[in-house]
Design a protein that fits this description.
Elements: E1 2-7, H1 13-21, E2 34-39, H2 43-52, E3 56-58, E4 61-66, H3 76-83, E5 92-99, H4 114-143, H5 151-169, H6 181-186, E6 198-204, E7 213-215, E8 224-227, H7 229-236, H8 240-250, H9 257-268, E9 270-276, E10 280-287, H10 292-299, H11 301-305, E11 307-314, H12 315-321, H13 324-329, E12 334-336, E13 346-352
Parallel strand pairs: 1-4, 1-5, 3-10, 5-6, 6-8
Antiparallel strand pairs: 2-4, 7-8, 9-10, 11-12, 11-13
Helix pairs in contact: 1-7, 3-4, 4-5
Length: 354
């Protein structure tokens, strides 16, 4: 899973990146995207590992891409589409919106207004997509003036992109363009920004620590998590035995970083399943609706090719009963075939023959 972190300059975007990636890279390169990889903490994986005592525990990984800050003013139309170019190679976007006051940190628009800042950021995503669409439409018009064996394909692509352009001109997401399955496949290679799953991290100040956690998202129409990024970064640097007392003192009941990851999984429609033996206990992620053979291919393609069946127990049943032996004794350990759809939290042993 690769997530792009975008936002206006001075929004605290890079601090959010440091919190999520765990890298604490305070010196971010100017004008360049920065990549960080974080392993997802999961209590379920720890519990399963405690039952098997494997030599190695491997967590699911998330790659974050910290994009340069977007700029406001006359330079925005020239600079921002280029800044967002790297975001096209991501699976989803995290928009960091500022909701904190700091006299030492400039405000690009003069005051704090999260709803306005998000609307303007959305406009930048739309503008970048519209610019790309216009360029392709112009190219198609020119190409169609010359004889070509691909005329029908060009005409179909042009008709599709005209629908896309109309949608973008109304500042609507491309998902609202009423495209058919063939048309959606036709534009897949463009990797439009306004088509990507998007969530909001509302970066609040320390005085609003009580707001940290999931919000309804009514202000932005997107999944929203409130985070006090500066405070969470400071907490990461504290010894673990001091962290709890400091959180209690600040009125901080939980940290938002884990919830951002959970929300990202939900946003992208991913589920986590586990495999475990004496060598390794590991978390895997696959899209919702993935059948057992395809899930096995995430481990190795040979396992899908030679799939026989899957031995499955849900994490809830395993935790309740305390062991694989007890799960089997109570009929909770199931043998599933090729049509089984993997569920969140499944512990699976794949049986195959190649």
């Amino acid at each position: 899973m690769r997530l792009g972190i975008c936002g206006w300059s001075q929004s605290g975007k890079s601090t959010v990146f440091d919190v999520l990636s765990g890298g604490q890279v305070h010196d971010h390169p100017s004008g360049r995207a920065l990549t960080g990889v974080a392993h997802v903490e999961d209590d379920r994986l720890d519990f399963i590992a405690s039952l098997f005592s494997p030599k190695r525990v491997t967590r699911a990984a998330v790659e974050y891409l910290d994009l340069p800050g977007l700029v406001a003013g006359p330079r925005s139309q020239e600079a921002n589409p280029g800044i967002l170019a790297d975001a096209r190679q991501t699976d989803g976007l995290i928009a960091v919106i500022r909701d904190f006051a700091a006299t030492t940190v400039a405000l690009p628009f003069g005051d704090i207004d999260p709803a306005r800042d998000f609307e303007r950021l959305w406009d930048e995503l739309i503008f970048a997509d519209l610019e790309m669409t216009e360029r392709r439409i112009d190219r198609l018009h020119k190409d169609m003036k010359r004889p070509s064996a691909n005329r029908d394909d060009q005409a179909a692509e042009l008709a599709c992109l005209l629908k896309v352009r109309e949608c973008l001109e109304e500042t609507r997401a491309i998902s609202e363009a009423d495209l058919g399955a063939a048309e959606s496949m036709m534009i897949r290679g463009f990797r439009f920004l306004s088509e990507k799953p998007l969530m909001v991290v509302l970066n609040v100040g320390e005085e609003a620590a009580a707001k940290v956690g999931v919000r309804a998202g009514d202000d932005f129409g997107r999944p929203t998590v409130a985070m006090c990024a500066r405070l969470e970064l400071e907490l990461d640097e504290l010894p673990e035995d001091e962290r709890g007392a400091f959180m209690e003192e600040m009125g901080l009941c939980c940290l938002a970083a884990g919830e951002v990851v959970s929300e990202a999984f939900r946003m992208l429609g991913l589920v986590t399943f586990f495999t475990c033996n004496e060598k390794e206990c590991r978390a895997w992620t696959v899209p919702e609706g993935t059948k057992a053979p395809a899930a096995a291919s995430a481990i190795h393609t040979d396992m899908e090719r030679g799939f026989i069946r899957a031995q499955v127990v849900s994490f809830e049943d395993l935790k309740e009963l305390g062991s694989i032996k007890e799960a089997r004794a109570h009929g909770r350990l199931r043998l599933e075939g090729k049509d089984y759809v993997v569920r969140e939290g499944d512990l699976i042993e794949f049986r195959f023959n190649v």
